[in-house]
Design a protein that fits this description.
By secondary structure, the protein is α+β, with helices and mostly antiparallel strands. It has a domain at 54-213 and 286-396: Nucleotidyltransferase, domain 5, CATH 3.30.420.590. The chain is built from twelve helices and 14 strands. The strands form four sheets. It has a seven-stranded mixed sheet. Strand 9 (229-237) and strand 10 (240-243) form a beta hairpin. Helix 1 crosses helix 8 (285-305). The protein is globular. Keywords: Membrane, Transmembrane, Transmembrane helix. It holds the Pfam family LytR_cpsA_psr. InterPro entries: LytR/CpsA/Psr_CW_biosynth, LytR_CpsA_psr. Residues 1-44 are annotated as: Disordered.
Length: 401
Amino acid sequence: MSVQTRGRAAATVPPAASVYSSGSAARPPSNTDGKKTKRKRRKDPGWAKALVIAGAVLMMLSGVAIVGGNALISSATNNISQDNLLGTAGKSEAEGGKNLEGPIDMLLLGVDVRADWDKNDTRPDTIIILHIPASHDQAFLISVPRDTEARIPAFSKSKFAGTTDKINSAFFFGAQNGGGWGGGTQLLAQTIKNMTGISFDGAAIIDFSGFKSVIDALGTVRICVDQRVESHHMSMVDGKPMWNADAKKTGKKMTPVVHKPGCQEMPGWAALDYSRQRYGLRNGDYDRQQHQQQLIKAMAKKAIDGGAMTNPTKLNALMKAAGKAFTLDTGGAPIADFIFTMKGVTGNDLTMLRTNGGTFSTDGAGREVFNPLTKQMFAAVKNDTLAQFVTANPAVLSTKK
């Protein structure tokens, strides 16, 4: 069943902020000893707040500019793994099913996994809903706070009985007992659907290694830092950026990486490090969520303005990088259809929204919950009236540019 196309009310986005990243070296952090250590269960999953969908956003927000048609798209995307990431959280026939004529909603996840870790022993640090209205001329990013309390339903695929926990734990519970990343995403998608009413057309997941490869393929991205923050994870040693654990092993002087307000072209290591900071920020994880959205938009803009989407060689290099750690579910629709459906959307049409007014929202017992305005925003996503909602409630617009 086709979903009726709705018109879009323009949403006014505040003017861009300023930015600058610290650190003078553009080289990636080094690993001094190369030794593998057995990974311990982490209470606070690590860095890379992976920022997700490099490939999906970059491609879908550039459909009109891609040269070569379906043949090039097929070539550029053949490295991307596809899996069933939605399960029962996909759109029903009554909601449009595989038909892309109506509004499109995607669940985008970012995880931190390294070669010597159990890939299923993880929780996503980045959870984003990408909403494209039926007019297909704009796109919205909404970050879901990872610590939001959620009722996670039972999931037979991983022999999970159900519980109440932080929302990102749904991915972990779904991945156990053979569920894998597919099961993890299915359970998380169902949990979000139960909380918001939103069903999905597709989902994407990318881990740090794949995300870093995409940034490296782009070269640099323009980021505007809005507040001074000292890195909790990296230091400079002999003018080179290193993870703190590796830097300590050198026995040399460590100088903290400090990201200072202002705008500049950031190399990949600096952009990723900035986007993963939450300690020392005025609104903690909420500011980090907006910085993650900011980086995604910067990457999309760089890919378009830098000609990556009009140059077959650059496009193939970009998608090859993303394909190393990128998994996609288009709900049964061909990837090429997804891309060309977005032909009216550009990087400048990507609007970043914030939940809970950009700060911690509590239920009175110290648990993180959605506030009333955020619940209304999710209802607007479901009803495809989000653009109108944003116009009427400009406070939901991100202040980060």
